[in-house]
Write a structure and sequence with these properties.
The chain is an alpha+beta fold. A hairpin with a 5-residue loop joins strand 5 and strand 6. The protein is globular. The termini are far apart.
Length: 148
Amino acid sequence: MQQEQASPAVQKRVRDSFDRQGLMSHLGARLAHIGLGRVHIVLPARPEVTQQHGYVHAGATSAIADSAGGYAALTLFDEGSEVLTVEYKINLLAPAAGDHLEAIGTVLKHGRTLTVCQLEVCGVQADGARKLVANGQQTLIRVSRTAG
């Protein structure tokens, strides 16, 4: 499926914001795609993000899903806006296993104040095989960027 890239200015704004997130840096997550209303975040599977059975922890899985949706919404907001999560629900469908996880946030409904996103997380094997391990939905609120 062809995915429209966000403009260079929007990509820079998303990357700059992502780079300020301590949790994403701590987890080792990175942005893989920034499109209009769609963002992909990749998280390498490594011991530091696993739970006791060796699968990627639900907290790490949920965190990258939340951020992917938030940044998908941000791609559609004006320069003076930021985004905050109001709520999200995630269903863990299978153990989060693979070479890495890929979270995909997709805007379903963009509004002036609230935006709703679909969240998907796939476990991706080294050979490229993918398995859906989590899905969910998120509501975000647009807020004015604060000086500082």
